[in-house]
Amino acid sequence: MVLPEECYVDEFDRYAMNDIPIRLIRLIDMTFVERNEVREHFRTSYMKHLGQPSDTVRYAILSHRWLNQGEPTYEEMRAGTAAGPGYEKLKKFCAKAEEYNMEFAWSDTCCINKNSSTELDESIRSMFRWYGNSAICIVHLARSETIEDMMEDEWTERGWTLQELLAPARIKFFNKYWVPMTGDRNDKDDKDDINEFLVSRPLLSSLRRRGPAEILETLERATGIPYDDLRRKFCPSPSEVDKRMTWAARQQGSKMWRIAYGEGGDRAFCRLIEAIMQAGDPSVLNWKGEAARHHTSRAIPRSPQSFIAYRSLEFEGSGQLEMTMTSLGLRVPLVIFPLSVRSNMRAGHGYSIALDCPLCPSIKVDIDTSCRLDSIDQYALGIVNYSLIGHVPGIRGKSAGFILHRAPDIFHCVPVCKPNCTAFVRLKFSAPEERFAEWKLVEEVGLVQVDFPIIPDEPVCYIDRQYLQTVYL
User: Max Cα separation, the chain?
Assistant: First the structure.
């Protein structure tokens, strides 16, 4: 089906007015142009070829470490008074952008009017998309001369540059002297055909051939991000949250959370986790250590560092976990199996505790915690990576779950009335069962893996729905 021309025009206009930076630097005269000017500049070319707007609206984008002082500002660029080492860096970047046949470029130092809170907010929230839509991301490593130097470069440690590394499909690294660090045009993919971008490559031709493999392997060691995730087009999604949070944990960027959400860093991170939980991927629960100071829940990690000690657990194939934050805590349905304490021994500054499952004696769970478990409490395994068909839960051979406990609810103990039997007709009386408080997490333990004996060749065993309970953590 061929779309009418108006549809292509509408798609192009939406892209140009929403998915590229608010303003760009026009390289021919180093002046600002707004989105509407960029749209008009590229529209004729787009209408000749149609296709994806991002293939036509091309701009270079800079990734770098800010100088302590001397970066050009929005106001200085407007007035034509920008000068100093930061402006020299900007001109070097623009020169490299022109080598990639770019007509426009963007830098976070001067292309954002930081006196406008609305513009600053939009820029921060859109930056990943802007880097992802760039034709080429040019990285300047001010502390590196060789690829090996990247291991100690501050650029690899900043929280802001994490998105600048992952989002672009094409990236090019330059060292402190603005010399290319490899002989390839795209350091994410040596097979990327972008010859049509390039006007000249005098620096590239003089380099010994050092492909993206070497630079990406070095970045993997420096950042902890796997090679395959660095090389492919990164797609943000609320999946593999435990693995991806370890990438952020290695970055220095607590200020980033405060700026992005306009509030304290701890609270901002809590809001991020709550938003991720709405997607229902149980990997967001795979953390260990101290919980955040959240107003209702103890299931929220304190920071990305909480994910560093995450266990390698199997979540693939499990169903979406319904997680809702309420005034009582995180509302989540879990498959609950009772546990009994086999031993509770002092170990260093904490306790080493062994638990058994009465319903499946082969299940043995050993945990370490700073708190001694009370013998009068009830204990349970709350499985998170189960699946549902209808309302029937299915558990996997390798299941992951929380260790839960609950104490007798002494505040709801009331005297039992024994009325005169002649005062009632055919009314049956019954003594109430012992009541317990709500399930709580055994803190600092995180998710544990248990191996259930299952039918050979069957990935899931379905059990009675009575074991599925809604808890508030």
Answer: 106
